Amino acid sequence: MASKRRLSFAQLLDRHAQVAVRVGVRPTPGQQVVMTVNQELLPLARLAAKHLYLAGASNVTTIIDDDELTLARYRHASDAAFDQASGWLFDGMAAAFKAGAARLAIIGDNPGMLAGQDRGRIGRAAAARAKAYKPAIECITSGMINWSISAGATQAWAKQAFPELSDRAALSKLWKAIFAASRADTEDPIAAWAEHNATLSARKAILNQSRFSALRFRGPGTDLTVGLADGHVWAGGESTSHSGAIFNANVPTEEVFTTPHCQRVDGYVTASRPLSLHGTIVDGIAVRFENGRIVEAKAEAGEETLHHLLSTDEGASRLGEVALVPHSSPISKSGLLFFNTLYDENAACHMAVGQSYAKCMDGGKTASKEELLARGANHSDVHVDWMIGSGAVDVDGICQNGDVVPVMRGCEWA
Ligand code: ZN
Ligand code: ZN
After folding, report:
1. pLDDT at res. 4
2. What are the b/e assignments for 222-253, b being 16+ CB within 10 Å?
3. Distance CA 245, CA 144 (A)
4. C-alpha triplet 410, 412, 414: angle, nearest 5°
5. For the chain, which terminus, N or C, has the lower number of CB atoms within 10 Å?
């Protein structure tokens, strides 16, 4: 038996960047790429740029963000400032995407960055940003371009995830978890991803054949029936853009997901993990749906932030995504709580309020917004996932003829 070669941090970082490029965004020859990155992760972004150019990208434009620069606004700007957003920048991104550019985001958000800031201002800034970002985000949700999100460990995020450890130990533990989730620590990460994508493809094929009219989630504090949109399609793993580029939108990814019917969700559901939203931690979420709409929403912490989110627009209190993730997924088995949706959503079944994905609807890439809405596909300026699955949750599929089929038991495939 061959023993696993011990890789240095530099080697692991390079492999992680390679996965972000060759599994994640996969630029086509000559394609431009818009990359965003947190300043603490510039070493990772530089490696990603190298791999983007090696893969044929013609021009990588990098936009850098920084927590202290974001906080400067909260500390020193006038109150009226919080209804403004960099629309010009997002318009430029939308123009780049329409001209064929790809998108790579390298994130490492501090989950508690805005703790202690005014809730109203956070909500207003988020709403202004969501509105300004809309033309660019629509290029992504409509499936126009190849795009991907990867993460790297930042100090504040690591301390939030592992408060009991020293700064140094926390950072190293988070990197280790990130390298494991991106399979950068395996013998051949690209081959490992090919195998993983094949498994996800097989799973979505079974669900697409089943043509369930609804899913029912049952567990502690949860009895929720999620009607599925007419002509919904299950997605997961690899996606294909309008121009035929194949990519993995998220690294890591363990989910298969589809479009709920935005008028046909009924019952109540309790979140199984906290959610980090705009730098605030929202914990102990419990909501009740009637005819697709959240009519009651409580949280043990961050309730005001949750209410702000749900009142963004008409679609923000309705579902745009439902996703199945086995309880035995590697991220769930790690036992870690990341306070980051990219990771935590891959540890448990989840749902998202807000915008739905066109690729999760039959003919969704060409259908009009009105037609998609009539078939149940939700529309909103926001898309926020939260986790509802755990080892104590069962999922049934309700067939067109009313038959009930076990889909998951204890959130494992039945
Ligand atoms: Zn999801
Ligand atoms: Zn989502």
Report:
1. 57
2. bebbbbbbbbbbbbbbbbebeeebebbbbbbb
3. 10
4. 100
5. N
DSSP per residue, 40-87: GGHHHHHHHHHHHHHTT-SEEEEEEE-HHHHHHHHHHS-GGGGG---H
Is the model more confident about 42 or about 141? Answer: 42
Distance in angstroms (rounded) separating the CA atoms of residues 166 and 159: 8
Per residue in 211-233, pLDDT tens? 999 999 999 999 999 999 999 99
Mean of per-residue pLDDT scores for the chain: 95
Average of per-residue pLDDT across 86-91: 97
Question: Which tokens hold the place of 322?
Answer: 């439902």
Q: Supply the pTM of this predicted model.
A: 0.90
Domains of the chain, with CATH numbers? 9-181 (3.40.1830.10), 211-234+255-413 (no CATH)
CA 246 – ligand 2 centroid, Å: 19
Distance (Å, rounded) from C-alpha 413 to C-alpha 74? 46
Q: How far apart are CA 409 and CA 414, in angstroms?
A: 6
Does residue 330 surpass a pLDDT of 90?
Answer: no
pLDDT (mean) for 88-98: 98
Residue with tokens 């992680």: 16
Q: How far is the CA of 324 from the centre of ligand 1 (A)?
A: 8
Residues 6+ apart with CB under 8 A from 244: none
Distance 341 CA to ligand 1 centre (A): 9
Cα 305-309-313 angle, rounded to 5 deg: 150
Ligand nearest to the CA of 389: 1
Rounded Cα–Cα distance for residues 225 and 396 (Å): 9
CA of 387 relative to ligand 1 center, distance in Å: 9
Dihedral sign from CA coordinates of 320, 302, 297, 333: positive
pLDDT of residue 394: 96
Ligand that comes closest to the CA of residue 322 = 1
One-letter identity of residue 291? N
Q: Which residues surround ligand 2, an ion (CB under 5 A)?
A: 321, 352, 385
pLDDT at 1: 47
